Amino acid sequence: MKKFAIVLAGCGVFDGAEIHEATLTMLAIKEQGAEYEVFAPDIPQHHVINHITGKEMKETRNVLIESARIARGDIKDLKEFYASDFDALIFPGGFGAAKNLSTVAFKGSDAEVNAEVEKAVKSMLKAKKPIGALCISPAFIAKIIGDVKVTIGQDEGTAQAIEAMGGTHIDTEHGDVVVDDENLVFTSPCYMLEADISQIWDGAYNTVEAMLKFME
Amino acid sequence: MKKFAIVLAGCGVFDGAEIHEATLTMLAIKEQGAEYEVFAPDIPQHHVINHITGKEMKETRNVLIESARIARGDIKDLKEFYASDFDALIFPGGFGAAKNLSTVAFKGSDAEVNAEVEKAVKSMLKAKKPIGALCISPAFIAKIIGDVKVTIGQDEGTAQAIEAMGGTHIDTEHGDVVVDDENLVFTSPCYMLEADISQIWDGAYNTVEAMLKFME
Fold it and tell me: Which of A20, A30, B19, B66 shows its CA 20 to 30 Å from the CA of B197?
């Protein structure tokens, strides 16, 4: 049975992992006969957003502890991730990918990437194992790799940032998966396009399907 | 197009709404050609649980604000729910249903139910519109209605509490839906049984399917 590592960035679209993308990535893996373990870095969130008002709350939350909500407690510190234990690695999206796992939301093409995230991605690249990234996550993949073909949908500003990092951006519609055959990177836009939850299911399912097909 | 109201109890299995059940209820509704709006009561959570350690955290969180994470901000205060605006009402599970929407987790058959939750359920009963409840939520439905046939899976203690409230409990397996034809109540065990995410998808999908079939 093929085993995925899923890396989360908190719990909630505006300051953490996008919950539908994370949940439907898990379902897509399970429905296609594979299994998964969940990881997140043990770091503070950049901030906490009230998801009704969009305003910052005077609180601090931890990315690993909040991610555990999506994982029902069954989660590991990202520093315990080893490429040798897995067949594939995948990052759902949400602003947490651009605020906690990286600083893409604030610095665009000058973003930093969390050291453990970078290490996990580089170890999979070295092992020639597939890496998936949904929504905004392809942006930090481009920051790590540089010359890589990805999609974040059709957002011009983010697409330009990816090109400035050395990447190639492909415009896509719902459910499309862009495959970089060199780096084995699989990306799909999900909520970077205006979407309903069925379109997120298509995107997550198709990305996992393309990754599994490669592993056959 | 048939319209469901989904009522959430926070964000996370141990102190709020179970995230997979909530997300997959949304997906089940959308995939079967219906639509939904999301509601939650504007009340403090009973407590906040660290989902890794299982221990209480010294924080306060609000049920409506945390539920908004699952709803991507698109949520209404439960006091704005009117049965006349909807064809069906559904409650995903999670401990929040037994700690925030009711006190079933602490008081069993002597539990209180949040007044707005009770009002929403009673208004749907009066309108003869279907009510769905997953996981532990059927317990507070039994507390409101009394003589109703439901399932929470196979947990003996909870089943006995439901019988003590005047209800009838039916033991079930994954994906089973118990239908009470008198009250139009549709229930399925989901994570009240040891489950993987595909089994939750079956439970949520089958419950929504049974409710839609009734509405034809």
Answer: B66
Task: Give the pairing type, strands A48-49 and A35-40.
Answer: unpaired
Please state, in angstroms and rounded to a whole number, the distance separating the CA atoms of residues A210 and A207: 5
Give the nearest partner residue to B20 out of A23, A65, A191, using CB atoms. A23
User: What stretches of chain A show up as alpha helix (H) in DSSP?
Assistant: 19-31, 63-70, 96-99, 104-107, 115-126, 137-145, 156-164, 197-215
Question: Which pair of structure tokens corresponds to residue B108?
Answer: 């069993």
Which residues from A are below 8 Å from B201, CB to CB? 27, 31
Average per-residue pLDDT in chain B? 98
Domain boundaries, chain B: 3-215
Query: Is the separation of the CB atoms in B19 and B12 below 8 Å?
Result: yes
Tell me the residues of chain B between 133 and 192 that have a Cβ less than 8 Å away from chain A: 191
Q: What element of type H or E holds B143?
A: helix B137-145
Return the pLDDT at A180: 98
Residue A15 contacts by C-beta under 8 Å, 6 or more apart in sequence? A45, A46, A47, A48, A49, A61, A95, A96, A99, A100
The span from the CA of B149 to the CA of B187, in Å, is 9
Counting as low any pLDDT under 70, the low residues of chain A are none
pLDDT per position as a tens digit, B56-83: 999 999 999 999 999 999 999 999 999 9
| Closest Cβ opposite residue A198 in set B27, B64, B69 | B27
Per-residue model confidence (pLDDT) at position A114: 98
Answer whether A65 sits within 8 Å of B72, measured CB to CB. no
Catalytic residue among A124, A125, A133, A135, which? A135
Cβ within 8 Å, pair A68-B59: no
Residue of B nearest to A197 (CA): B27
Cα–Cα distances (Å) from A143 to A114, A118, B135, in that order, read 11, 9, 42
- A23 touching B (Cβ < 8 Å): yes
Question: Cβ neighbours of residue B48 under 8 Å, at least 6 residues apart?
Answer: B15, B56, B57, B59, B60, B61
Lookup result for tokens 């399917």: B209
ipTM attached to this prediction: 0.98
Chain A residue at shortest CA distance from B197: A27
In one letter, which amino acid is A135? C
The list of chain B residues with pLDDT below 50 reads: none
In chain A, which residues have their Cβ closer than 8 Å to the Cβ of B205?
Answer: none
Please name the fold of domain B3-215.
Rossmann fold (3.40.50)
